[in-house]
Design a protein that fits this description.
- The chain is mainly alpha-helical.
- The chain has a domain of 99 residues: Serine Threonine Protein Phosphatase 5, Tetratricopeptide repeat, CATH 1.25.40.
- The chain is 71% helix and 3% strand.
- It has 14 helices and two strands; from the N terminus they run E-E-H-H-H-H-H-H-H-H-H-H-H-H-H-H.
- Strands 1-2 form a two-stranded antiparallel sheet.
Length: 310
């Protein structure tokens, strides 16, 4: 997921064209929009955070077409749109997206500025898990050497803040918060801290009694174990997670728990088992009584199936 906690990449054939008088490369992806059309669409969005998202999509397309300068300009525009006042729960995650892209293209100063503003904005996010994820992602981008800022001191500070925030989460959600911090530490190259956190994460997950919460927490723990190279430990946790998910009586809860376990299983490299779990999740989703909830649940499960079957 953020697994909980991953980013959309544009992978397509892009034909670059120079637009007269603007110096921006234009490209179409199959039947999609040109870069210029993406930029125009971004500018017409109704709120600054939506404009920023549009500019980042355009920046991705520009980078894919080889227009690094244009991509940098679009990413900086996205960042600029997020500097004003706005809904922290919308602005902070978008600032993280901007920081990640700016760092990826080597604009480390702007990336660091975006990270710091995201952290500042996160103070206005009421949900503890979401705030933890923002801090953990910020720490990861700050610490990553290849596609991040490479600032180990800042990363440690932010991940320490994230860990402290995770500790304040309700017991049911603490494992999810701890998983975000552990993954952030892994990305930032802080392996020892990640290992210590995942031990706490497992303890927290196994202590849960409610089966859906337990299944999702164990799946999160398995994902972290896999990311840190502990494949066998991850498999054991996934077996426990699947058992917890299958024990759930309520159809909607069983579907979502199986979906979480399937996603973690796929992330650990077992596509066949992940698809089997998703088929079970689909059966459970089909039994949800409320028509609207049934449609929402089935859509999420079938989207996951389609992604794996690509």
């Amino acid at each position: 997921m953020p697994a909980i906690f991953s980013r959309l990449l544009f992978v397509a054939a892009i034909v670059p064209l120079f637009l007269a008088g603007c110096g921006t490369k234009s490209a179409k992806k199959g039947g999609g929009m040109t870069v210029q059309q993406r930029l125009e669409k971004a500018e017409k969005e109704s709120t600054p955070d939506k404009q920023a998202a549009g500019y980042l999509r355009a920046a991705r397309a520009q980078l894919a077409s080889g227009d690094t300068s244009g991509a940098r300009d679009s990413a900086r525009t996205a960042f600029d749109r997020l500097k004003g006042d706005g809904d922290a729960s919308a602005y902070a995650p978008r600032l993280i997206d901007a920081a990640a892209f700016l760092a990826e293209i080597g604009d480390k100063k702007a990336a660091k500025d975006a990270i710091l503003l995201a952290v500042e904005r996160s103070a206005g996010v009421a949900d503890v898990v979401r705030r933890t994820k923002i801090l953990a992602d910020a720490g990861a981008i700050a610490g990553e050497k290849l596609k991040g800022v490479g600032d180990a001191v800042l990363a440690k500070d932010l991940l320490t803040q994230a860990s402290a925030m995770a500790d304040t989460a309700e017991e049911r959600f603490r494992a999810e918060a701890l998983a975000a911090v552990a993954l952030g530490c892994t990305r930032a190259g802080q392996a020892e801290t990640a290992a210590a956190l995942v031990d706490r994460l497992e303890e927290s997950a196994k202590a849960l009694e409610e089966p859906r919460a337990k299944a999702e927490a164990l799946a999160a723990a398995a994902n972290v174990r896999s990311e840190t190279g502990k494949k066998e430990e991850a498999k054991t946790l996934l077996t426990e997670a699947a058992a917890a998910a299958k024990s759930i009586d309520r159809a909607e809860g069983r579907a979502y728990a199986l979906l979480a376990v399937a996603n973690a299983t796929a992330a650990c490299g077992d596509k066949k088992q992940a698809l089997a779990l998703l088929q079970e999740a689909d059966k459970a989703a089909n039994k949800v009584a409320d028509p609207a909830q049934q449609k929402t649940t089935m859509d999420k499960v079938r989207t996951a199936i389609a992604e794996l079957e690509k």
